[in-house]
Every structure is written in C-alpha cells, then in structure tokens.
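subagent[fold] <- orchestrator: predict structure for attached chain, return tokens only, no commentary.
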Amino acid sequence: MELKAQTPNNPVGPVKGTKKNKYLMAGIIGNVMEWFDYGIYGYFAVAISVNFFPTNDPMVSLILSFMVFGLGFVARPIGGFLFGHFGDKIGRKNTLSLTVILMGVSTFIMGALPTYAQIGIAAPIILAIARMLQGISAGGEWGSAVSFLGEYSKPNNRAFIVSFSQVGSALGLLLGSLTGLLFSNIFSTEVLNDWGWRIAFLFGIVIAFFGYFMRKGVEETPVFQEAKESKSFSEKPLRDAFKHHRTGMVTCFLLMSGAFVTYWLILSFMPTYISQFLKLPMNVGFSLTAITLVAYMIALPIAGFLADRFGRKPLMIAGSGGILLFSYPLFSLLANAESYGTMVVVVCLLAIIFALFQGPNTVAMSEIFPAKVRVSGFSVPYQLASAVFAGTAMMAATWLINKTGNVMAVPIYMCITMVITLLATIFLYKETKNVQFDK
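subagent[fold] -> orchestrator:
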C-alpha cells in the first residue's frame, strides 16, 4: 500500500514505512475505541437493567434496557448530519478527533451515574442522554473513518484497506466481549450487577484521550487537501448530497437494512441470547461472542481482498444470499447443540458468511459518492438505517422471543430484513470497483 500526504513542495507525495502504518492505525484505532465504548452497553445490558430499570418482571427490565440501547442508534443520524457536514467542510481528521472525545466522555458519565435506587427517575433519564451522546459520536465517526482510510489507499487495494474499518469495529466489540467474559469469571453475578460493570465504562475517559492524541498526530487526507486548495469542495455538502445523489443515498439505506440486524444479532446479542433464552451460563455467551468476532475479523480483509479482484457486487450477493439460506439451519443447530464445539462451528460459519457481505459493502457505499460530499452522502443514510434497523434489533428479537416463545424468531427476523438488502444489492447497487475515489 502506498499512502499519500500533503507536503509543502509535493502536494501529493508518498508516505511509506512507519508513517504509512501510523496513518492506517489512526484511521482504525478510534473505531476500535469507540466501538468498545459503544458495544459494552449491549454486553452489560442485564446489569444495566437491574440498576436503572427495576421492575417485577426481569424481561420487562431487559426490554427497557434495550430501548435505551436503541436510543444510541436513534441519535446516530444526528451525528451523521452534524459530523458528516464537518467531515466534508473541516476535514476527515479533525472530525475524527472530535468524535472520539465525545464518545469517551459520554461513556465515562454512564459508568459514574448513580442508580435508580439512589436518585430515582433521573438515573434512567441521564443514562438515556449519555447513550444518545454516544450515538451522536458513533454516527459522526463512521463516515469520516471510512473516507479517511479510502482516501489513503490505492484503487487496487481499496476494499482490502477499508475493510479494516470493520475490523476495528469488531475488535472494539471483541474487547468489550472479553471484558464481559473476564468480569463474569472474576466477579459473582451479584457483584457484577452491583458495581463490577462500571469499571469498563469508567475506562472510557482513558480511551478518549488516547484516541484523540493518536489522531491529532496525522495529516489530513490528500483528497480533501486537494479539494480544499482547488476550491472544489462543497460549501453545503449535505444539501448537495440530497440534491444530486438521492439514489445513492437510498441504496445505502437499503443495503444496511438486513446488514445492521444481522450484525447486532450475531455479534452483540449472543451473550443475552445464550444466557436468557438458551439458559446456558453467561460466560458461554461471552466466549462464543469472542470467537465469533475473531472469525469475523479474519474473514473481513479476505473478503475485501477478493472484492478488489472480482468486484464488490458478487461478494455482497454471496454474503446476503448466504445469510438467507443458512442462518435458520445454523441457529437451529445452535439452539439444539449438545456440545460447545458444535456451537463454535455454528457461530464461526455465521460470521464468515456475513463477512462476505460486509467486507466489500463498506467501501462500496463510500464509492457511490464523489469526494466533495462523500462523508455526508455516506453517513446520513447509513446512520438513518442504523436508527431504524440496528437500534431496534436486539429489542425486537427479545420481544419476538418473549411473545412467541420461539428462540428461532431471531434468524426469521434476520432473514426478513436481509431480503431487502439482497434486492438492493442486485437491482440498485451498480458495481463501483473501478471508480476514481479522488473525484
């Protein structure tokens, strides 16, 4: 990979070696940190429900906890609108520095927050506000991070490089899952639900400052610098994206419908699914989630590599079609598994199939838009889809299982939404493998 950076005498000179790796790390590290902060809510949802939503029915408390989890996704479009505009106006790097600070501070607030028993209704209200601030940060992070990586890559390795944005997100969730696994082994259930869960949230402030200083030490992408110097960047990128790229924005929204549901039900809901509905120990759910995330992280860059060779669309069709064909029988095996090994095989297969879609999907959506509106055009529909599909996924799955008494409601719901994604991939998305990313 050859990266390019702005220099006084060479506007688009090459960046190699250690500095090249630093730029790649800066694009990924914030994703890792933000998604650790963002994901730990899902892993400690049971503890949060006990502390902030006490009711006579634990299932109602858990649903209320997931409703606040969903608020983070409802707020993500705000981040997409706000920081998408900033990403196209003040630069990708500067925007990323702001989002990582906001995420860390809001996560710290959640860890330090008194419980319902201590301050009453104010506790869940403040929790909801902090969760929304997390959502605004995550909504602003994604489009800028993907654009940052894509604009520092070459046409023949762009999908491979940008796939590491998804690896970063998965690594953040993995660290959250490993934290949950560690805590569930060293703390009793009572201690974990009482105060043990707070440790992960309080660590958010350290993450915020580390991510900020990592990103402050890199330069802006050459694509944005050239657009700024040539006066070709948009004064009103969000308006221009809606005016000239509506079809692309609709395509992004539909591509992410089933993808978001599948992502959160496979990669974050599993500890709750395993413990609450399959009635197995919590540490089994955490360990399976960790294994799933590792398989997913390994498969993502392989899918990106294949997408650089054969195109984005074939891989996306294979991944979304694979979820439709195999998620129900695989979940059936999981629900009836008699050994831990069988469960490991099932979750790894689910992760690999889904990675076939996600590996090329991220770069494909960013390639739909020109540089001057890329962050806005990509972020807004992506985050709107997040609010509609991702934020409600675990709550909907919990509600469906509670109402039907059928644990197989999870793959059924995944398949219904993935139909939308598959149809959008086939009929709306036009192959973007050879587009110029700097235009």
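orchestrator: received. Logging for downstream: Residues 83 and 140 are 5 Å apart (CA to CA). Confidence is low (pLDDT under 50) at residues 1-15.
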